[in-house]
Each structure stands twice: as structure tokens, then as C-alpha cells.
Design a protein that fits this description.
The chain is an alpha/beta fold. The chain folds into 2 domains: about 1-170, HUPs (Rossmann fold); about 180-270, 2-Layer Sandwich (Pantoate--beta-alanine Ligase, Chain: A,domain 2), CATH 3.30.1300.10. It has helices at about 5-15, 30-45, 60-65, 70-80, 90-95, 115, 120-135, 145-160, 190-210, 220-225, and strands at about 1-5, 20-25, 45-50, 85, 140-145, 165-170, 230-240, 255-260, 265-270. It is globular.
Length: about 270
């Protein structure tokens, strides 16, 4: 594994004309990230992973400050999984000019997390734009846990870049919780509650697949979850998984949730 701390040095050493898979991360790696890496290694000749905690996508300073970091552990994990290249760029290199962060969302895309976290997805698209404008991978691998983010990146990339976006299935623990870097901030009791939320929403999904008319019961599930100890729901919605509209049927829907477990914000979809 070759570690680069500069995009310029990376581009001088790496031939991106060959089949290269890109896995962008913010570090604090877990098995969800490893599944993306393994998919890239299987499909591409070379795999590039980035670790960059993107300040542009945090709408709260404390959230950025408290985001889990463990670079030494991450490097050991990536060496173990024998990736080809690791990029750890500085913020000053990613955002050289003020305009580098100026990405705007369409009004119809301002739903769910883009309402609850103003500027978040603009920041996500800004860093993806900078990465793909300055690096030329042929493939990018992204997880379904961040489904709205995945949807927006796919739409953005399709308009601007000649790169294949690979949509990878959410990886879950045995207790049904979607793996997330933020889970490390929760204790066992908190994780148990998040497990109960996930199991409850899987149950709701099954009932919707049998009879979509039970969507009216979403208020019951909302109240059950919101009444759990230390839980505060940000949103709980059912949407079309193809275009994220509210026009859906039993074959094309997803349930989306964002909630606070104590002070830790978690998202998931089912």
C-alpha cells in the first residue's frame, strides 16, 4: 500500500487510465467500508481509498469536532486488506479557492436530511466534485446506508463525469444495526435501543410489502420509536427508492429514518 498526502503526488505516480476503483471515506473504518473495498478489489485492477473528514458537510461545529478519528488504526486495517493506494489530503488542497465549495441543490432535492442538515449535501457534492475533478478513477463505490447521499451523488456524477457509480448493500451487525462510524460513540444500552428501532422498522417494511395501505400506521411506529428512552426522531418517511418522491407502491418503496440516540444522530433506510 502506498500512502499519499497530496493529490498532485498521487497523480504523478498512479496511472488512472487503468481500471481503478475509488472508495471515499472519512475514516473510522468498519466492515461497511471493507465491503466497498472488497467490491472494488474484485472489479478493478487497482483500489484507491481516501480518508478525509470533510468540513464542508458539517453544519454544526461540534459535530465536526466530535467525529470519531483513528487514523493509525485505519492505516493498519487498509494494509491488512492490501489496498493499492491511500490518499490522506489536507483541507487546503481539496478547497483551494472559495468557489470550490459552491454547489447548490435543486429545490426538489431539499427533502429529509437536506432540510434537517442545511448545507450538508452541498458539502458532500463539493468534495466529490473536487476529488473526481482532480483524480480520474474509473469506478466509485458507495454504500446504501447513506441512501439520499448516494442518490444525489449518482445524479451529480452522471451529469459531469465519465465514471461508473457502484451502489453497495448496507452492512449490518447481528443485531440489525447499520454499521456506522458514529456507532462507536454509543454504549451497549444505546446500541440495544438502536437495534430495537431497526427490528421494528424491518417489521414495518414487511407489513408494507404485504399491504401498502398500512402506510397510515406510520404514526404508530413514529410514536413507538420516539417514546423510547433518549430517542428523538428527526424524520420518519416512506419514499420511492428510485426517485425519492412520495409516489410509491409496495414494490419500489423505502422507509427512511433519522434520529438522535442521546446526542448522536443516526440515519438508516429499510
Amino acid at each position: 500500500m502506498i500512502i499519499f498526502k497530496s493529490i498532485n503526488k498521487l497523480n504523478k505516480k498512479v496511472n488512472f487510465k487503468a481500471s481503478t476503483g475509488f472508495v471515499p471515506t472519512m475514516g473510522s473504518l468498519h466492515n461497511g467500508h471493507i465491503s466497498l473495498i472488497n467490491r472494488s478489489k474484485k472489479m478493478c485492477k487497482k483500489t484507491l481509498v481516501s480518508i478525509f473528514i470533510n468540513p464542508a458537510q458539517f453544519n454544526k461545529l461540534n459535530d465536526l469536532k466530535n467525529y470519531p478519528r483513528n487514523l493509525n488504526k485505519d492505516i493498519k486495517i487498509l494494509k491488512k486488506h492490501k489496498i493499492d493506494y491511500l490518499l490522506i489530503p489536507k483541507t487546503s488542497e481539496i478547497y483551494k479557492k472559495k468557489g470550490d465549495r459552491s454547489i447548490k441543490l435543486n429545490k426538489k432535492d431539499k427533502i429529509m436530511c437536506s432540510i434537517k442538515r442545511p448545507g450538508h449535501f452541498e458539502g458532500v457534492l463539493a468534495v466529490i466534485n473536487q476529488f473526481l475533478s482532480n483524480i480520474k478513477p474509473t469506478h466509485i463505490f458507495l454504500g446504501e446506508k447513506d441512501y439520499q447521499q448516494l442518490f444525489l451523488i449518482k445524479k451529480f456524477v452522471k451529469k459531469k463525469f465519465n465514471i461508473k457509480v457502484h451502489q453497495c448493500t448496507t452492512v449490518r451487525s447481528k443485531n440489525k444495526i447499520a454499521l456506522s462510524s458514529r456507532n462507536i460513540l454509543l454504549n451497549q444500552k444505546d446500541l440495544k435501543i438502536s437495534s430495537n428501532i431497526a427490528k421494528l422498522l424491518f417489521k414495518y417494511k414487511n407489513s408494507l410489502q404485504k399491504n401498502i395501505k398500512v402506510k397510515k400506521k406510520i404514526e404508530n411506529f413514529y410514536n413507538k420509536i420516539n417514546n423510547m428512552k433518549n430517542i428523538k426522531i428527526d424524520y420518519l418517511e416512506i419514499r420511492n427508492k428510485v426517485n425519492l418522491s412520495k409516489n410509491f407502491n409496495k414494490n419500489n418503496f423505502k422507509i427512511f429514518i433519522a434520529y438522535y440516540n442521546k446526542k448522536i444522530r443516526l440515519i438508516d433506510n429499510f
